[in-house]
Model the fold of this input.
Amino acid sequence: MAKVHTVVLVRHGESEYNRDNIFTGWCDPDLTAKGQEEAKDAGKILQEYGFQFDVAYTSVLKRAIKTLYLIQEELDCLWIPVTKTWRLNERHYGKLQGKNKDETIKKYGREQVQLWRRSFKVCPPPLDEKDEHWSGNDKRYSGLSFVPTGESIEEASKRSLPFWHKHIVPALKSGKRPLICGHANTLGSLIKNLDPSSKIDLSDLSLPNALPLVLELDESFLPSQCQFLQHPSGGKLHKKRNCNS
Ligand SMILES: O=C(OP(=O)(O)O)[C@H](O)COP(=O)(O)O
Done:
């Protein structure tokens, strides 16, 4: 089907928790120096392909906000409107937040941990509201009637999809070119759940850090194709990797 609309999505660059192999969710670690470079690289790749954006969206987590800023800086479009929303936050990882992934596997077993990470409906164990990682007292969430203590991928999709329909689709309808900077599970599940029957394969939602993903949509705003724009190989060639199965 012919391409009608295009949205570019980027997972943030490497965070301190990514570097240390820690479940992140709604925790708010910064980008590492490597993550900052990855973000700048993403901007350079997008520039090389000639992408331009009129509007941008990100979460309220600094790893995504800073990645977006660095991309905008590379593209010289710091002036475009940016909407930050908790609806694009990473899925809430409950009690796993702040825990090392290998230690969690040792404690609970690989199969159980994989179920918490990738099952659509299974929620990770809930975070205690007294835990240091509980977001209920964080002022950025003061407008929410309910602050999650853990989310399944399905629950995370249920709060990101309405944002897509309320903000991204109208932006596309008015001819705007949107850039979305977010998180592995939320972006992956958002794309998959726009049309669960689509052939798009995001190989278990493990989106690489700061690799721009070009999503093409048909006239009904359903995904028709998606592909990653690869990092420069040898500093020269950017190879596109197709993710349609
Ligand atoms: O918070 C996370 O994602 P993020 O680094 O994209 O924000 C997760 O810890 C990613 O880990 P996962 O691949 O085990 O789901």
User: Anything to note?
Assistant: Residues 11, 15, 18, 23-25, 90, 117, 183-185, 206 surround 1,3-bisphosphoglyceric acid (CB under 6 Å). The first strand starts at residue 5 and ends at 11.
